[in-house]
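Archive transcription. Copying these from loose printouts into the bound notebook so they stop getting lost. Printout 1 of 2:
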Amino acid sequence: MTLTRREILGAGGGLAALSLTSQTVWGSEIVEIRMQGRDDGSHVWFDPIGILIKLGQTIRWTNFNPGSSHTTTAYNPANLERPLRMPKAAKSWDSDYLLPNESFSVTFTEQGVYDYFCIPHEHAGMVGRIVVGEPTHGWTEPVGANGDLPEEALKAFPTVEDIMTKRVVRRA
Protein backbone atom coordinates (compact mmCIF):
# COMPACT_ATOMS: atom_id res chain seq x y z
CA MET A 1 0.00 0.00 0.00
CA THR A 2 1.37 3.41 -0.97
CA LEU A 3 0.28 6.55 0.83
CA THR A 4 0.08 9.88 -0.93
CA ARG A 5 1.83 12.92 0.46
CA ARG A 6 -1.55 14.40 1.37
CA GLU A 7 -2.52 11.27 3.35
CA ILE A 8 0.78 11.27 5.24
CA LEU A 9 0.52 14.98 6.08
CA GLY A 10 -3.12 14.58 7.07
CA ALA A 11 -2.31 11.70 9.42
CA GLY A 12 0.61 13.61 10.94
CA GLY A 13 -1.51 16.72 11.39
CA GLY A 14 -4.21 14.71 13.09
CA LEU A 15 -1.69 13.22 15.49
CA ALA A 16 -0.22 16.63 16.22
CA ALA A 17 -3.66 18.08 16.87
CA LEU A 18 -4.51 15.18 19.15
CA SER A 19 -1.34 15.65 21.19
CA LEU A 20 -1.92 19.40 21.53
CA THR A 21 -5.51 19.07 22.70
CA SER A 22 -4.91 16.78 25.64
CA GLN A 23 -2.54 18.97 27.77
CA THR A 24 -0.54 15.98 28.26
CA VAL A 25 0.37 15.39 31.64
CA TRP A 26 -0.08 11.72 30.92
CA GLY A 27 1.99 11.61 27.76
CA SER A 28 5.22 13.41 28.45
CA GLU A 29 7.96 12.42 30.83
CA ILE A 30 8.69 15.97 32.02
CA VAL A 31 5.89 18.27 33.14
CA GLU A 32 6.59 21.99 33.54
CA ILE A 33 5.38 24.05 36.50
CA ARG A 34 6.06 27.76 36.19
CA MET A 35 6.97 29.96 39.16
CA GLN A 36 5.45 33.32 38.40
CA GLY A 37 4.60 36.69 39.89
CA ARG A 38 3.53 40.20 39.14
CA ASP A 39 6.32 42.66 38.34
CA ASP A 40 5.56 44.68 41.48
CA GLY A 41 5.76 41.55 43.68
CA SER A 42 2.17 41.92 44.86
CA HIS A 43 1.16 38.39 43.84
CA VAL A 44 3.13 35.15 43.30
CA TRP A 45 2.01 31.68 42.20
CA PHE A 46 2.79 28.27 40.73
CA ASP A 47 1.21 27.51 37.34
CA PRO A 48 -0.42 25.07 37.35
CA ILE A 49 -1.27 24.97 41.05
CA GLY A 50 -2.61 21.40 40.82
CA ILE A 51 -1.62 18.58 38.49
CA LEU A 52 -2.18 14.85 37.95
CA ILE A 53 0.80 12.83 36.73
CA LYS A 54 1.74 9.20 36.21
CA LEU A 55 4.02 7.28 38.51
CA GLY A 56 7.62 7.80 37.37
CA GLN A 57 7.03 11.17 35.70
CA THR A 58 9.27 14.16 36.36
CA ILE A 59 8.15 17.66 37.26
CA ARG A 60 10.40 20.59 36.42
CA TRP A 61 9.79 23.90 38.19
CA THR A 62 11.21 26.94 36.41
CA ASN A 63 11.28 30.46 37.80
CA PHE A 64 9.75 32.77 35.18
CA ASN A 65 9.43 35.67 37.64
CA PRO A 66 12.12 38.21 36.69
CA GLY A 67 11.85 40.12 39.96
CA SER A 68 11.96 37.39 42.59
CA SER A 69 13.58 34.14 43.65
CA HIS A 70 11.42 31.15 44.60
CA THR A 71 11.71 27.65 46.01
CA THR A 72 9.78 24.44 45.54
CA THR A 73 9.81 22.72 48.91
CA ALA A 74 7.92 19.60 49.96
CA TYR A 75 5.77 19.75 53.06
CA ASN A 76 7.87 17.40 55.14
CA PRO A 77 9.40 17.63 58.65
CA ALA A 78 12.83 17.41 56.96
CA ASN A 79 12.14 20.88 55.49
CA LEU A 80 11.97 23.50 58.22
CA GLU A 81 9.97 21.05 60.37
CA ARG A 82 6.88 21.59 58.21
CA PRO A 83 4.00 19.09 58.57
CA LEU A 84 4.04 15.93 56.46
CA ARG A 85 1.73 16.44 53.46
CA MET A 86 3.11 13.79 51.11
CA PRO A 87 3.44 9.99 51.14
CA LYS A 88 5.62 8.79 54.02
CA ALA A 89 7.71 6.56 51.74
CA ALA A 90 8.42 9.36 49.25
CA LYS A 91 11.66 11.31 49.18
CA SER A 92 11.38 14.92 50.32
CA TRP A 93 12.79 17.79 48.22
CA ASP A 94 13.85 21.40 48.54
CA SER A 95 15.15 23.27 45.51
CA ASP A 96 16.86 26.03 47.48
CA TYR A 97 16.37 29.51 46.02
CA LEU A 98 15.93 29.57 42.24
CA LEU A 99 16.83 32.80 40.51
CA PRO A 100 14.96 33.88 37.36
CA ASN A 101 15.23 31.27 34.57
CA GLU A 102 16.66 28.58 36.89
CA SER A 103 14.99 25.16 37.14
CA PHE A 104 14.72 22.22 39.53
CA SER A 105 13.31 18.74 38.85
CA VAL A 106 11.89 15.83 40.86
CA THR A 107 10.86 12.38 39.61
CA PHE A 108 7.88 10.95 41.51
CA THR A 109 8.24 7.27 42.36
CA GLU A 110 5.54 6.88 45.04
CA GLN A 111 1.80 7.12 44.38
CA GLY A 112 -0.08 9.71 46.43
CA VAL A 113 -0.78 13.37 47.06
CA TYR A 114 2.13 15.80 47.43
CA ASP A 115 1.79 19.34 48.72
CA TYR A 116 4.63 21.83 48.35
CA PHE A 117 5.33 25.52 48.93
CA CYS A 118 7.69 28.40 48.19
CA ILE A 119 9.64 29.22 51.36
CA PRO A 120 9.59 33.03 51.08
CA HIS A 121 6.02 33.15 49.72
CA GLU A 122 4.09 30.45 51.61
CA HIS A 123 2.31 33.14 53.66
CA ALA A 124 1.07 34.63 50.36
CA GLY A 125 -0.46 31.29 49.30
CA MET A 126 2.29 30.20 46.90
CA VAL A 127 1.62 26.47 47.25
CA GLY A 128 0.86 23.60 44.91
CA ARG A 129 -0.49 20.07 44.87
CA ILE A 130 0.59 17.09 42.79
CA VAL A 131 -1.44 13.88 42.54
CA VAL A 132 0.65 10.92 41.39
CA GLY A 133 -0.96 7.78 39.95
CA GLU A 134 -4.44 6.35 39.99
CA PRO A 135 -6.22 6.93 43.29
CA THR A 136 -7.70 4.07 45.23
CA HIS A 137 -11.19 4.14 46.70
CA GLY A 138 -11.48 6.82 49.36
CA TRP A 139 -8.19 8.52 48.43
CA THR A 140 -8.77 12.23 48.93
CA GLU A 141 -6.78 14.86 50.78
CA PRO A 142 -3.24 14.29 52.06
CA VAL A 143 -2.91 12.40 55.31
CA GLY A 144 -1.91 14.47 58.31
CA ALA A 145 -3.02 17.54 60.14
CA ASN A 146 -2.94 20.94 58.54
CA GLY A 147 -0.26 21.75 61.07
CA ASP A 148 0.96 25.28 61.23
CA LEU A 149 0.15 26.34 57.67
CA PRO A 150 -0.74 29.95 56.91
CA GLU A 151 -4.42 30.57 56.18
CA GLU A 152 -3.61 31.81 52.64
CA ALA A 153 -1.75 28.57 51.90
CA LEU A 154 -4.61 26.37 53.13
CA LYS A 155 -7.14 28.32 51.03
CA ALA A 156 -4.99 28.07 47.88
CA PHE A 157 -4.75 24.27 47.54
CA PRO A 158 -7.04 22.81 44.85
CA THR A 159 -8.97 19.74 45.97
CA VAL A 160 -7.77 16.30 44.97
CA GLU A 161 -11.16 15.71 43.31
CA ASP A 162 -10.73 18.84 41.19
CA ILE A 163 -7.27 17.71 40.10
CA MET A 164 -8.56 14.21 39.30
CA THR A 165 -11.37 15.64 37.18
CA LYS A 166 -9.44 18.33 35.32
CA ARG A 167 -5.91 16.81 35.42
CA VAL A 168 -4.50 20.36 35.40
CA VAL A 169 -5.76 23.13 37.71
CA ARG A 170 -4.67 26.69 37.06
CA ARG A 171 -4.93 29.44 39.67
CA ALA A 172 -8.20 31.31 39.86
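Printout 2 of 2:
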Amino acid sequence: MSDGVEWTSDLDAPESALAIGAHPDDVEFGCGGLLAKWAAQGCVVHHLVCTDGSKGTWDVGADVAALAERRRDEQREAARRLAPSTAGEVRFLDHVDGELESGLAERAEVARAIRELRPSVVLGHDPWKRYRLHPDHRHAGLLACEGIVAARDPHFFPDQGVAHHRPDALLLWEADRPDHVEDVSTSLDVKLHALEAHESQFESTMGAADASELDAFRSRIRERLTALGAPHDMAAAEVFALIDRL
Protein backbone atom coordinates (compact mmCIF):
# COMPACT_ATOMS: atom_id res chain seq x y z
CA MET A 1 0.00 0.00 0.00
CA SER A 2 1.18 3.53 -0.75
CA ASP A 3 -0.89 5.39 1.83
CA GLY A 4 1.70 5.05 4.60
CA VAL A 5 -0.55 2.83 6.72
CA GLU A 6 0.74 -0.53 7.89
CA TRP A 7 -2.32 -2.64 7.20
CA THR A 8 -3.25 -5.85 8.98
CA SER A 9 -5.85 -8.25 7.67
CA ASP A 10 -8.23 -11.07 8.50
CA LEU A 11 -8.18 -11.75 12.21
CA ASP A 12 -8.88 -15.31 13.31
CA ALA A 13 -12.55 -15.70 14.16
CA PRO A 14 -12.96 -15.07 17.90
CA GLU A 15 -15.10 -17.17 20.20
CA SER A 16 -17.48 -14.26 20.67
CA ALA A 17 -17.95 -10.69 19.49
CA LEU A 18 -20.00 -7.75 20.73
CA ALA A 19 -20.99 -5.07 18.23
CA ILE A 20 -22.13 -1.78 19.78
CA GLY A 21 -24.27 0.40 17.53
CA ALA A 22 -25.99 3.70 18.08
CA HIS A 23 -29.19 2.62 16.31
CA PRO A 24 -30.78 -0.53 14.96
CA ASP A 25 -29.08 -1.24 11.59
CA ASP A 26 -25.78 0.55 12.39
CA VAL A 27 -24.05 -2.75 13.16
CA GLU A 28 -25.15 -4.31 9.89
CA PHE A 29 -23.91 -1.29 7.93
CA GLY A 30 -20.63 -1.03 9.84
CA CYS A 31 -19.50 -4.63 10.22
CA GLY A 32 -22.23 -6.97 9.01
CA GLY A 33 -19.97 -8.71 6.53
CA LEU A 34 -17.30 -9.42 9.11
CA LEU A 35 -19.80 -10.64 11.72
CA ALA A 36 -21.43 -12.94 9.18
CA LYS A 37 -18.02 -14.33 8.20
CA TRP A 38 -17.07 -14.96 11.80
CA ALA A 39 -20.47 -16.47 12.60
CA ALA A 40 -20.00 -18.98 9.79
CA GLN A 41 -16.79 -20.02 11.58
CA GLY A 42 -18.55 -20.51 14.91
CA CYS A 43 -18.27 -17.07 16.55
CA VAL A 44 -21.12 -16.11 18.86
CA VAL A 45 -22.31 -12.66 17.79
CA HIS A 46 -23.88 -10.28 20.32
CA HIS A 47 -25.49 -6.89 19.61
CA LEU A 48 -25.80 -3.88 21.92
CA VAL A 49 -28.01 -1.09 20.54
CA CYS A 50 -27.76 2.19 22.42
CA THR A 51 -30.89 4.06 21.25
CA ASP A 52 -34.48 3.18 20.42
CA GLY A 53 -34.31 4.31 16.79
CA SER A 54 -37.52 6.28 17.22
CA LYS A 55 -36.48 9.13 14.90
CA GLY A 56 -35.68 6.84 11.96
CA THR A 57 -38.44 8.00 9.62
CA TRP A 58 -39.30 10.95 7.38
CA ASP A 59 -43.00 10.66 8.33
CA VAL A 60 -43.81 13.68 10.52
CA GLY A 61 -46.97 11.97 11.79
CA ALA A 62 -45.35 8.67 12.68
CA ASP A 63 -46.15 6.83 15.90
CA VAL A 64 -42.62 6.89 17.26
CA ALA A 65 -43.32 4.43 20.08
CA ALA A 66 -44.58 1.91 17.54
CA LEU A 67 -41.57 2.60 15.34
CA ALA A 68 -39.20 1.94 18.24
CA GLU A 69 -40.85 -1.41 18.92
CA ARG A 70 -40.78 -2.33 15.25
CA ARG A 71 -37.08 -1.52 15.07
CA ARG A 72 -36.36 -3.79 18.03
CA ASP A 73 -38.02 -6.66 16.15
CA GLU A 74 -36.09 -5.78 12.98
CA GLN A 75 -32.80 -5.77 14.87
CA ARG A 76 -33.48 -9.20 16.34
CA GLU A 77 -34.26 -10.54 12.88
CA ALA A 78 -31.12 -8.96 11.43
CA ALA A 79 -29.06 -10.60 14.17
CA ARG A 80 -30.57 -13.99 13.32
CA ARG A 81 -29.77 -13.47 9.65
CA LEU A 82 -26.14 -12.58 10.40
CA ALA A 83 -25.58 -15.58 12.63
CA PRO A 84 -28.21 -18.24 11.94
CA SER A 85 -26.71 -20.82 14.31
CA THR A 86 -24.51 -18.69 16.59
CA ALA A 87 -26.60 -15.60 17.30
CA GLY A 88 -26.00 -14.36 20.82
CA GLU A 89 -27.91 -11.76 22.79
CA VAL A 90 -29.43 -8.60 21.36
CA ARG A 91 -29.53 -5.97 24.10
CA PHE A 92 -31.14 -2.53 23.93
CA LEU A 93 -30.20 0.40 26.17
CA ASP A 94 -33.28 2.29 24.86
CA HIS A 95 -31.95 5.81 25.09
CA VAL A 96 -34.05 8.19 23.02
CA ASP A 97 -32.85 8.41 19.43
CA GLY A 98 -30.82 11.59 18.96
CA GLU A 99 -30.36 12.12 22.70
CA LEU A 100 -27.61 9.62 23.54
CA GLU A 101 -24.90 10.90 25.85
CA SER A 102 -21.57 9.40 26.90
CA GLY A 103 -21.62 10.11 30.60
CA LEU A 104 -20.80 7.89 33.56
CA ALA A 105 -24.26 6.31 33.72
CA GLU A 106 -24.13 5.30 30.07
CA ARG A 107 -20.55 4.08 30.43
CA ALA A 108 -21.66 1.86 33.32
CA GLU A 109 -24.37 0.34 31.13
CA VAL A 110 -21.90 -0.56 28.40
CA ALA A 111 -19.31 -1.82 30.88
CA ARG A 112 -21.91 -4.11 32.43
CA ALA A 113 -22.80 -5.55 29.03
CA ILE A 114 -19.13 -6.22 28.26
CA ARG A 115 -18.58 -7.82 31.66
CA GLU A 116 -21.68 -10.00 31.39
CA LEU A 117 -21.28 -11.05 27.75
CA ARG A 118 -17.46 -11.35 27.94
CA PRO A 119 -16.71 -10.88 24.23
CA SER A 120 -13.29 -11.60 22.78
CA VAL A 121 -13.69 -8.70 20.34
CA VAL A 122 -15.73 -5.51 20.59
CA LEU A 123 -16.75 -3.54 17.49
CA GLY A 124 -18.14 0.00 17.36
CA HIS A 125 -18.31 3.39 15.67
CA ASP A 126 -15.11 5.43 15.39
CA PRO A 127 -15.93 8.42 17.63
CA TRP A 128 -13.02 10.42 16.21
CA LYS A 129 -14.12 10.37 12.57
CA ARG A 130 -13.81 13.90 11.22
CA TYR A 131 -16.93 15.80 10.26
CA ARG A 132 -19.28 13.16 11.65
CA LEU A 133 -22.65 14.83 11.99
CA HIS A 134 -24.76 12.43 14.02
CA PRO A 135 -24.19 12.88 17.76
CA ASP A 136 -25.43 9.38 18.59
CA HIS A 137 -22.67 7.84 16.47
CA ARG A 138 -20.00 9.88 18.26
CA HIS A 139 -21.36 9.05 21.69
CA ALA A 140 -21.85 5.35 20.92
CA GLY A 141 -18.25 5.19 19.71
CA LEU A 142 -16.98 6.82 22.87
CA LEU A 143 -19.07 4.46 24.97
CA ALA A 144 -17.55 1.44 23.23
CA CYS A 145 -14.04 2.71 23.97
CA GLU A 146 -14.71 3.96 27.48
CA GLY A 147 -16.87 0.96 28.30
CA ILE A 148 -13.93 -1.34 27.58
CA VAL A 149 -11.71 0.62 29.95
CA ALA A 150 -14.34 0.44 32.68
CA ALA A 151 -15.10 -3.23 32.05
CA ARG A 152 -11.46 -4.32 32.17
CA ASP A 153 -10.53 -2.57 35.43
CA PRO A 154 -12.00 -4.07 38.61
CA HIS A 155 -12.37 -0.79 40.50
CA PHE A 156 -14.77 0.75 37.98
CA PHE A 157 -18.39 0.27 39.05
CA PRO A 158 -17.69 -2.40 41.72
CA ASP A 159 -21.34 -2.16 42.77
CA GLN A 160 -22.24 -4.10 39.62
CA GLY A 161 -21.06 -7.30 41.26
CA VAL A 162 -19.84 -8.64 37.90
CA ALA A 163 -16.27 -9.82 37.33
CA HIS A 164 -14.15 -7.50 35.22
CA HIS A 165 -13.35 -8.53 31.65
CA ARG A 166 -10.71 -7.40 29.16
CA PRO A 167 -11.49 -8.09 25.47
CA ASP A 168 -8.64 -8.99 23.15
CA ALA A 169 -9.33 -6.36 20.50
CA LEU A 170 -11.48 -3.42 19.47
CA LEU A 171 -12.45 -2.75 15.85
CA LEU A 172 -13.85 0.66 14.92
CA TRP A 173 -15.84 0.93 11.69
CA GLU A 174 -16.15 4.05 9.51
CA ALA A 175 -12.68 4.71 10.82
CA ASP A 176 -11.03 8.08 10.28
CA ARG A 177 -7.73 6.28 9.63
CA PRO A 178 -8.39 2.59 8.96
CA ASP A 179 -5.50 0.17 9.28
CA HIS A 180 -7.19 -3.23 9.21
CA VAL A 181 -9.03 -4.94 6.37
CA GLU A 182 -11.32 -7.96 6.40
CA ASP A 183 -12.19 -9.97 3.31
CA VAL A 184 -16.00 -10.26 3.25
CA SER A 185 -16.42 -11.58 -0.28
CA THR A 186 -18.03 -14.76 1.03
CA SER A 187 -20.42 -12.97 3.38
CA LEU A 188 -21.51 -9.89 1.41
CA ASP A 189 -24.84 -11.47 0.51
CA VAL A 190 -25.50 -12.24 4.18
CA LYS A 191 -24.73 -8.63 5.10
CA LEU A 192 -27.29 -7.45 2.55
CA HIS A 193 -29.85 -9.98 3.76
CA ALA A 194 -29.40 -8.72 7.33
CA LEU A 195 -29.67 -5.07 6.27
CA GLU A 196 -32.90 -5.84 4.49
CA ALA A 197 -34.42 -7.01 7.77
CA HIS A 198 -34.66 -3.30 8.65
CA GLU A 199 -37.77 -2.77 6.56
CA SER A 200 -38.75 0.44 8.37
CA GLN A 201 -35.57 2.01 6.98
CA PHE A 202 -36.13 1.22 3.31
CA GLU A 203 -37.22 4.77 2.50
CA SER A 204 -35.22 6.89 4.95
CA THR A 205 -31.88 5.04 4.77
CA MET A 206 -31.94 2.83 1.69
CA GLY A 207 -33.79 5.08 -0.74
CA ALA A 208 -36.47 2.51 -1.58
CA ALA A 209 -40.22 2.78 -1.21
CA ASP A 210 -40.42 -1.00 -0.71
CA ALA A 211 -38.47 -4.21 -1.26
CA SER A 212 -39.00 -4.06 -5.01
CA GLU A 213 -36.84 -0.94 -5.20
CA LEU A 214 -33.80 -2.22 -3.30
CA ASP A 215 -31.63 -3.05 -6.31
CA ALA A 216 -29.97 0.38 -6.35
CA PHE A 217 -29.23 0.12 -2.63
CA ARG A 218 -27.71 -3.34 -3.08
CA SER A 219 -25.56 -2.03 -5.89
CA ARG A 220 -24.29 0.85 -3.75
CA ILE A 221 -23.26 -1.49 -0.96
CA ARG A 222 -21.57 -3.90 -3.36
CA GLU A 223 -19.71 -1.06 -5.08
CA ARG A 224 -18.60 0.37 -1.77
CA LEU A 225 -17.22 -2.92 -0.47
CA THR A 226 -15.64 -3.71 -3.82
CA ALA A 227 -13.84 -0.35 -3.75
CA LEU A 228 -12.63 -0.98 -0.20
CA GLY A 229 -11.29 -4.39 -1.17
CA ALA A 230 -9.59 -3.45 -4.43
CA PRO A 231 -6.37 -1.98 -2.92
CA HIS A 232 -5.94 -5.23 -0.97
CA ASP A 233 -6.69 -7.62 -3.84
CA MET A 234 -9.96 -8.60 -2.23
CA ALA A 235 -13.26 -8.86 -4.08
CA ALA A 236 -15.10 -7.16 -1.20
CA ALA A 237 -13.90 -5.82 2.14
CA GLU A 238 -14.80 -3.96 5.29
CA VAL A 239 -12.12 -1.79 6.89
CA PHE A 240 -11.55 -0.77 10.50
CA ALA A 241 -9.19 0.86 12.94
CA LEU A 242 -7.79 -1.99 15.04
CA ILE A 243 -6.82 -1.47 18.66
CA ASP A 244 -5.38 -4.66 20.16
CA ARG A 245 -3.61 -3.33 23.21
CA LEU A 246 -6.48 -3.07 25.63
